[in-house]
Design brief:
Blueprint (H helix, E strand, L loop, with lengths): L9 H23 L4 H4 L3 E7 L12 E4 L2 E4 L9 E7 L11 H13 L7 E7 H9 L3 H9 L1 E5 L13 H31 L3 H24 L8 H11 L12 H19 L7 H26 L9
Parallel strand pairs: 4-5
Antiparallel strand pairs: 1-4, 1-6, 2-3
Helix pairs in contact: 1-3, 6-7, 6-10, 7-8, 7-9, 7-10, 9-10
Length: about 325
């Protein structure tokens, strides 16, 4: 794997240095307060940067995925996230609870303090977990390791040699995965329509969020055999559009109204249940129905084409 950063813009190199400081400061604080022996022996074995930033193709001055798909960077265009993969030496340390402060710190540095030029997405795995996925030919992990950058690593801990799946092997694995995820998207869309018909706008928004989440899961699994464990629609959309750029067209034009609607969708998973102030107007809800119905239809078409599936396999 490549480890030099000379090809990256200066802003990105500065961000990487800050991200590493935050990761190791927070991790050392976590294990420094530990009483269990296994936690005190915890180590970060590797830190990888992968995705477009690793290739020098997503600097703040260049292009980004917007709320309406890839476009030139502008004032209303969110920068692409830094995709950071951490490898730890104990599977218990890969649990989300040990990285809450790190993730919160990274969010503050970008969203509040403005000291990072882009958000950071942190995924934590063990060496065994990544090696098993490399040996199994999971494209997401093969790409991350083969095209990513090593930002930090302990010596003497190489990754397993990645396997390249034959086309029939890939399709069979992907078919099993999408057989469970796409029906959930279709089910949530039916529930959203019912809630809308009953005048339950917030419930409809929640179900539309879940429709989009499972549609994106389906698309990512069909292309990468992996989808992140997240309820963030903006992050899933960014990953999906990186894998299949044409899917961004379902969101239409990038204007203030469409951005507001998309933010309402992204917020719906939490705020429709826990924020009394959350409200969505009828015109916003109608727009989201149109866009998400288009998303579901396009995902079904793309997945059937990629996996050579009859329509009955993932029918609504």
């Amino acid at each position: 794997m490549r480890s030099d950063l000379d090809h990256l813009p200066e802003t990105v190199r500065a961000d990487i240095a800050a991200i590493l400081r935050i990761i190791f400061t927070e991790f050392e604080d976590t294990i420094g307060r530990a009483t269990q022996g296994w936690k005190r022996a915890g180590r970060v074995m590797k830190v990888l940067l992968h995705g477009e930033h690793a290739r020098g193709a997503a600097s703040p001055e260049e292009t980004s995925v917007t709320m309406a798909g890839p476009t030139s960077q502008g004032a209303d265009t969110p920068p692409k996230s830094y995709e950071i993969m951490l490898v730890v030496n104990d599977k218990r340390l890969a649990e989300a609870q040990y990285w809450t402060h790190t993730r919160d710190h990274l969010i503050r540095e970008h969203a509040i303090m403005g000291r990072l030029s882009a958000p950071v997405e942190l995924a934590v795995f063990t060496m065994t977990g990544i090696n098993s996925r490399l040996s199994g030919g999971k494209p997401y992990f093969v790409d991350a390791v083969s095209r990513g950058l090593v930002l930090y690593e302990l010596p003497g801990e190489p990754f397993a040699a990645p396997k390249r799946l034959a086309a029939n092997e890939f399709r069979e694995q992907a078919r099993r995965l999408v057989d469970s995820t796409f029906p959930r998207a279709a089910s949530f869309l039916r529930m959203a329509r019912f809630a809308h018909g009953e005048g339950m706008s917030n419930q409809a928004a929640f179900n539309l969020h879940q429709t989009a989440e499972h549609a994106y899961h389906t698309l990512l699994l069909a292309h990468l055999l992996y989808s992140p464990s997240t309820h963030r629609i903006d992050w899933m959309r960014e990953r999906a559009e990186a894998a299949v750029p044409s899917i961004g067209s379902v969101w239409g034009t990038n204007d203030a109204f469409s951005r507001r609607c998309f933010r309402l969708l992204d917020d719906a998973y939490v705020k429709t249940r826990y924020a009394p102030s959350y409200a969505i107007r009828e015109d916003e809800l109608v727009w989201l129905f149109e866009r998400i119905e288009a998303l579901v239809a396009q995902v079904e078409l793309l997945v059937r084409q990629r996996l050579l599936l009859p329509s009955s396999r993932i029918a609504k």
